[in-house]
Design a protein that fits this description.
This protein is mainly alpha-helical. It has two domains: about 90 residues, DNA polymerase, domain 1 (Orthogonal Bundle); about 120 residues, Intergrase catalytic core (hpI Integrase, Chain A, Orthogonal Bundle), CATH 1.10.443. The chain has 13 helices and three strands, in the order αααααααβββαααααα. It has a three-stranded antiparallel β-sheet. Helix 1 runs antiparallel to helix 2, helix 2 crosses helix 4 and helix 6 runs antiparallel to helix 8.
Length: about 300
């Protein structure tokens, strides 16, 4: 495993690139770390070829680097992440005048077939939501968590970061902090809002040990972790008799798909999910396409 070099020994271009990503693009910390890891790996590859600066590399060097990743067995999705990091790097080097040629511009990659997300049926979601024992404080909290995950389509990290001031009861909205510190307002349905307010009024005061405005707390009064939410979802799925592996993102996928099946506009779903590109949201239209194909086959004279 490659070790990160101390920052003082980093080449100047790495430090400048990191600052550019952090302050100009506002990347989330995990994304920033991944980008820097990718360009450091690329830099080490170039140095083994006697190339000290990425600005001195050409298209054949980039292609040789990607071939090596492929030969090491890296998944296509992981290779694409490296390409994204390299393209960002060369855009930066061009912007600051360290190079006039971007070798990634002519890079041709095979088109990846995006896997369809795992989705629960409406009936499966209903069964899952009903699993927590709501006669107990913990059960009310867990029901509220499940309802918000499915009712708002939020990511697990967004749920864990939710603060009391982010809930707008009268408006039926929740403010969500997504990737890259971007905020968005997401509608929250009547059922999810009802369980969320039950939790906030009846259970959260019992869990509170020290001042915090985080909404969801653990038994010790601290902010609930992502792993704890994963366990809550998996336990509910097990109790509901759902044989497939279910995780918090499954509820996000189900939220999007069920909206689109019900006739929601794709752009509206994009806004609610916080997707920067509508092409990301389009993966959720697969069930609609299957449904339309079946309708056409059944009812069209030449189906």
């Amino acid at each position: 495993m490659q070790r990160h070099r101390p920052e003082s020994r980093e080449p100047a271009w790495v430090r400048e690139f990191a600052a550019h990503l952090r302050f100009e693009h506002g990347l989330a910390e995990n994304t920033l770390r991944a980008y820097l890891h990718h360009v450091r790996t690329y830099s080490s590859f170039l140095q083994a070829l006697g190339i000290e600066h990425p600005a001195d590399a050409a298209l054949p060097h980039v292609e040789a680097f990607l071939r090596q990743l492929h030969e090491l067995g890296l998944a296509a999705s992981s290779q694409a992440q490296y390409v994204a990091a390299l393209r960002a790097l060369y855009r930066f080097l061009t912007l600051v005048g360290q190079t006039t040629a971007d070798p990634t511009e002519l890079l041709v990659l095979p088109r990846r077939q995006r896997p369809l997300p795992e989705v629960l049926s409406v009936e499966e979601v209903e069964r899952l939501l009903q699993q927590p024992d709501v006669s107990t404080p913990r059960g009310i909290r867990d029901r509220a968590i499940l309802e918000v995950l499915y009712g708002c389509g939020v990511r697990v990290c967004e749920l864990c970061q939710l603060r009391l001031g982010d809930i707008f009861v009268e408006e039926g909205l929740v403010r969500v902090r997504g990737k890259g510190a971007k905020e968005r307002l997401v509608p929250i349905g009547a059922h999810a809002l009802e369980w969320l307010m039950q939790y906030c009024r009846r259970v959260r005061p019992l869990l509170l040990r020290r001042p915090t405005d985080r909404v969801f707390l653990n038994a010790r009064g601290g902010a609930l972790s992502r792993m704890a939410v994963w366990k809550i979802v998996q336990e509910a799925a097990r109790r509901a008799g759902i044989a497939r592996r279910v995780h918090p993102h499954t509820l996000r996928h189900s939220f999007a798909t069920h909206l689109l099946e019900g006739g929601a506009d794709l752009r509206a779903v994009q806004e609610m999910l916080g997707h920067a590109s509508i092409t990301t949201t389009q993966i959720y239209t697969h069930l609609d396409r299957f449904y339309l194909r079946e309708v056409h086959r059944s009812f069209h004279p030449r189906g």
